[in-house]
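In this section we walk through a basic example: taking a raw amino acid sequence and producing a predicted 3D structure, encoded as discrete structure tokens. The instruction is simple. Fold the sequence below.
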Amino acid sequence: MRTILITGPGGSGRTTVAAATALRAAAGGSSTLVLSADRADTLGAALGAPTGPAPTRILPDLTAWRPDPAEGFREDLTAFQTRAKNVLDLLGASRLDAEEVTPLPGAEELSFLRALRDAALSERYDLLVVDLPATPRALGLLALPEELRRYLRRLLPPERQAARALRPVLGRLAGVPMPADWLYETAARWDVELAAVESVVADRATSVHMVAEPGPAGADAVRTAALGLALRGLRTETLVGNRVLPETTTDTWLAALAAQQRKALDDWRESYDVHPVAHLGRDPHGAADLTRLAAPPVNPAPTPVEWPVTDRIAADGVLVWHIPLPGAIRDELDLVRRGDELVITVGPFRRIVPLPSALRRCTVAGAALRDDELRIRFAPDPDLWPRAK
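The resulting token sequence is shown next.
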């Protein structure tokens, strides 16, 4: 199944574009699910039909779903209390009823990620259109599975499970229930679920459509968002210039604004596949308005983003890791090697990535930012690198 992630600055109209994109795909015969993270029913307002916590059939080939994070959190907490019953009883804890539970910070993101996983694993649909939150929150959401899996591996290393056979003996000696089994089982289940979400984001058939209004503010937002997406290994396949004014108008004020929009669109075309979407003069409502928007088509699967390592040992004595970072600025870039990981900071974004196996036997020899690409040089460590015979 193809997945299209749609994001953009707040107020750019990304939910409307997501609805129009899903409608166009469904009209072309693709069984389509549009999934929204919006708390308000902006998706339903655009589609002309209410959406909610259960998938709703809008048209024969179009289904809309806006999960309820509160309900998802209640279900997760209830299941956790059931699995941890022995420990909670040992501590004398009073269990929470589902009716008194309200979502904690972060619960909404986890609930939406679970819905994204379930939607992506469904065999009922050909296309999944994901209406992500505004870009800063969307980038945090996309980073969450990888970061949580990293925390789990550090806090509960899988190799520690080798001692599981001793826990019943330790439990009898101590005279109290040992929580390690259910703890590791829970961690393993979380890891599998997070890996499934991570695979959706990293899938070669997943693409990104960014929505922005053409203009100075939109240009700054696009540069920042594209950089954050690139750091997560995602390329902006299509840049949707939304609410574009007619080029011909007798109104002087509108003519100046239209000229500003044209300039922004021309600048974007140097780096992106730009798809302008016209301003209807009102908020779109219903299938007829969404069809008039002429949303971007669903293109074939995009070219995957690669972070290749090139061998320049014979020529320069180094291996070079190439990381595309369009729009990056040298003064906003920072690198730190931590064991077998590299901490990359670009402007407001940070990612900790494992080094490819060959580079783990090397030391960092330098780095340079050229042509929107970070090139990190690694020199083989004589104590670790295989010696030529």
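Looking at the output, two observations stand out. The mean pLDDT is 86. The longest helix spans residues 180-202. In the next section we compare this with other chains.
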